[in-house]
Design brief:
Length: 347
């Protein structure tokens, strides 16, 4: 998203990373990654999620490599973009002259203290920013003006299939855990007499009409398993409504926006980032009780799919979000040129 502009983008990552950048510096070989994780998804270690502890071997080794390579290339006014919070504390401490800019913050363990320069964060939503501040007891955090909120961003090319109305099924996409609410999605679908398609990891047993995970049993539904980018786009474009009844405070809840990118409205609990991404009567509806969820889903099916997609493209596409990052980076550059109270010349 940020390539081709006024800044040089250097990516420090794994050997097989293909993200566009101006320079790719390998800090983890594929052989090493295989030794750590085998063929498994590192986000699903032992079905317990990723290990964020800085002392884990993958963090200690990759952080050390990254710190060494960054030192070879950095200029004092470079921005160090970290995306794993305190798990990358070692990197932040190794280059104290740099301003740390944590981006896409949907986690709680942000870096707050380091040996040197300032650290700021771009949160995925205002809901999550305030949650993190609240858990730390920050009423006056001293980061105002430079912390900010920038939503997650999506490539429209990942959603080539367009919802043209008339979807015959409801859709749930996500991990099969109780707090994601697939069981609630099944209750809504059952009451409306509509099929529910369920996609996502975590199943331990399935039948033609149900799926069971460690925490939940979802029935009736058509379980299609984890899906890749192409299949996800097709499922979302073909659905009448995307259901995201997450019961915890979602930092962003990207699945709802992904559906909107395909023109499909989303219905979710009235909590967390959904209060920012789902505009009622435009991109979907929010609810509190099961009955309200049923009514919200019925109303969402009446929304104009073109309007839903237009809303998503206008707020969450690469073209929409890029200027927000440019503005944030310019603001952080201003720390070198006078700081918060610097006033630019006016005509």
């Amino acid at each position: 998203m940020m390539t081709g502009g006024k800044r040089k983008v250097i990516l420090y990552g794994s050997e097989l990373n293909t993200a566009p950048c101006d320079e790719h510096v390998t800090i983890v070989t594929e052989e090493r990654r295989q030794k750590w994780f085998g063929q498994d998804d590192h986000n699903d270690l032992a079905r317990g999620g990723f290990d964020w502890e800085p002392s884990s071997p993958w963090w200690t080794e990759s952080n050390s490599r990254a710190a060494g390579e960054i030192k070879k290339r950095c200029d004092d006014r470079d921005l160090l973009l970290l995306i794993a919070g305190r798990s990358q504390q070692l990197v932040a401490d190794a280059v104290p002259q740099l301003t740390v800019a944590e981006f896409g913050v949907g986690y709680e363990g942000i870096i707050t203290d380091r040996n040197g320069g300032p650290t700021f964060a771009a949160f995925e939503s205002y809901s999550h920013q305030h949650f993190v501040y609240g858990t730390r007891g920050w009423r006056f955090p001293g980061r105002y003006g430079y912390d900010c909120v920038i939503p997650n961003y999506f490539d429209p090319a990942d959603f080539p299939h367009k919802n043209n109305g008339g979807g015959k099924y409801l859709l749930f996409v996500g991990r099969l855990i109780a707090n994601k609410g697939p069981q609630v999605a099944a209750m809504i679908a059952k009451e409306l007499g509509m099929p529910l398609v369920v996609a996502g990891p975590g199943a331990i047993a399935e039948t033609e009409t149900s799926v069971t995970a460690n925490e939940v049993h979802v029935e009736p539904c058509d379980y299609v398993g984890p899906v890749g980018v192409e299949e996800r786009g097709k499922l979302m474009a073909g659905a009448a409504v995307l259901l995201a009844p997450t019961t915890y405070l979602e930092p962003f809840g990207g699945v709802a926006v992904e559906a909107m990118m395909a023109g499909t409205p989303a219905v979710a609990f009235d909590t967390g980032a959904f209060t920012e991404t789902i505009v009622e009567g435009v991109s979907g509806y929010r609810f509190h009780t099961l009955n309200e969820g049923i009514i919200a889903t019925e109303k969402a099916m009446l929304l104009n799919n073109d309007d839903v997609q237009r809303y998503a493209l206008g707020r969450y596409s690469l073209d929409a979000v890029r200027p927000l990052y440019d503005a944030w980076f310019d603001r952080l550059d201003g720390l070198w040129d006078g700081g918060w109270d610097m006033v630019s010349p006016r005509p």
